[in-house]
Amino acid sequence: MANDEKIMARADSQAGAAGxxxxxxxxxxxxxxxxxxxxxVVKTYKLxxxxxxxxxxxxxxxxxxxxxxxxxxxxxxxxxxxxxxxxVAARAAFSGWQxxxxxxxxxxxxxxxxxxxxxxxxxxxxxxSTGASRAAAKTEVEEAIDRLVYFAGWCDKYQQxxxxxxxxxxxxxxxxxxxxxGVVTIIAPEKSPxxxxxxxxxxxxxxxxxxxxxxxxxxPTAAVxxxxxxxxxxxxxxxxxxxxxxxxxxxxxxxxxxxxxxxxYCGTDKGQIKQLQTLACDNIKRVILRRxxxxxxxxxxxxxxxxxxxxxxxxxxxxxx
Amino acid sequence: MSSNDQENSLNFNxxxxxxxxxxxxxxxxxxxxxxxxxxxxxxxxxxxKYFTSMNxxxxxxxAELAEAGAEDVDRAxxxxxxxxxxxxxxxxxxxxxxxxxxxxxxxxxxxxxFAVVESMxxxxxxxxxxxxxxxxxxxHFFYYAGWADKVDYAFPGRKTGPVGVAGQIIPWNFPLLMxxxxxxxxxxxxxxxxxxxxxxxPLTAMLLAEVIAEAELPPxxxxxxxxxxxxxxxxxDHPDIDKIAFTGSTEVxxxxxxxxxxxxxxxxxxxxxxAANIIFEDAALDQAVEGIVNGIFFNQGxxxxxxxxxxxxxxxxxxxxxxxxxxxxxxxVGDPLDKNTDIGAINSSMQLETINKYLEIGQQxxxxxxxxxxxxxxxxxxxxxTVFTGVAQSHRIVQEEIFGPVLAVQTFRTVDEAVAKANNTxxxxxxxxxxxxxxxxFKVSNQMRAGVVWANTFNKFDxxxxxxxxxxxxVGREGGLHGLKPYLQLA
Lengths: 321, 491
Description:
Chain A is of the alpha/beta class. Chain A is 44% helix and 17% strand. In chain A, the strands form 3 sheets. A 5-stranded parallel beta sheet of chain A has the order 7-6-5-8-9, sandwiched between helices. A 3-stranded antiparallel beta sheet of chain A has the order 3-4-10. A two-stranded antiparallel ribbon of chain A has the order 1-2.
């Protein structure tokens, strides 16, 4: 029985991918395979590092249950080494992504939204299978799509809002502009596994950073599928790297790695926050805390979220007399 | 051309010399003893302990200063909290601005006194304290005074409000200027402050306390506590401080960041640097040499954004080094109060030890050391302008901040090599680029991972110009519109 349930939950997501919104709300015909019908193909959930989908080098996994508490999938339990590989990939991609024109970054973020829109039903089913109600799952996916469009639009505008020409007293032309902080690690929210991820990922990459994300530990399937969306959206390999695994094991590395410039932590665990902030100081890492449990209001829809992972560079040049 | 080339070398062995031109000190009164400035009054420390601030050029004591302990810091924080609640945060923003304008004006009126005391206490040449430190400090107050009733316009779509009580810890290299950088934006945004000047240079901060009293700021809006590291730690550890602003070494910045882990205290850190000054073959070389000299020998090299690494294109390296060594021979090291002095006294015996340690390290690592041949005064702490050649990227004198008049010289062939070398330290505070090609300036400045880039100039500062570092050079910006943000809550 347990096995049937598992196939059903997974088949749910395939139904979404294949068909219309209506079918996703009912158990699909593929759910119970009879002799006359084909056997469903069950997806393997892997990591996303440097534009590729490797399994964890450690060969470890953990089980994720569906909404009924039945086993849903085996998820990669990423190791410290996987994380380090991801940082190497993010660093290698940084210079290219930083210097990608703002217009093109905007188009690529918009493309992510397009790709997600096209696979909406799959994501609704996936969120449903890990516990969201149908209505909540639909809202979350739609918000995530709209959030990507929102930040796509900011790519070539935040610079104008935040930069300045400075009227210095001496005979110099002086201006300040925003540049991405660099490699940013993101501990995605445990709840709201898709919108929470997008709400924190989008402002970081809109601003030209490259990122390593730790997906929701208990509900990672939508995040892994989102990596497939990124992969088909002209996002250069290495710009977004996504790991799944146990946060207790991986958190310290996200905070302590010496080639990571900033850390975004979504959560409220005081012990974890203190641990991360303590480890971050070895290379004066910027630590950004996002403690909200909602990701659908103005707090997570504004350009100051882009500014969180930006540096300000001021340039001086003499003016001839 | 090299300085060894006798025929082309400049001859400094002439009968012409500079007569002493000391700035008069007769209009300056330094008290024997300064107490803590808490709640608008000068009060003795709970411990009744005092320490002495020395003149680094004469090694003579200047004044005794109160050593604030945890109890005194607590008193200062309470005064700041009270002033925040009862007065300052609720005051009409335009009125706050007027108080800050008063500070700027009184500083301008007392500019000469401040410049002399700054040079006596810290050892910097009077030319710099007179023309740079003091006018810039006054300008900083003037600039932020005007922001007080306009901050909402700086943050589109947001209402702004103050953060609360700010604890501010400043270094000894620009004592008054750093106090202005810290206090002015904090007050403009409606915060109150507890400021700790460095233990080797507390005097101008105490004079500033007098100015603040003279400007009739409400008691407790600005509190100034003197002391060393322990006093600073008491500020950082105080539970009723909402924001810490620190300027100093990366080492101490790291300790502060760690101490604040798990608290809700916000912080900005302005830390160390190891700036590369990149000279391309197409630069105006004489101007570039002036930029190198200003970059590393300004303020004895006690500058976090000092151009302490010279990257010079191989094709012009000999030429540039020859001109640089000639120029170094003309630099006058000596009495900070003499208006002809280029390089004053090293701030303290401790700092001189650090610099001398690096001079040894540099030679042990295999680099070649060159120093100017200038005479040094008998008493006081001094260091001749120094250049190391033959250094490698991994050398400690290339990677670590020395904070003295010591330049490490490397060469490069291509733009990419220059950028790679420039970025190859843990720091990212500032950088310089010298070329007559505009496109090259934009390419290089774009690729430098540093918060301030000086193109065909160096070590320029202005209240309206945001300043702060990438990477391990710090978090946050001071100066300009962007310098308001650390002192505001956005809603």
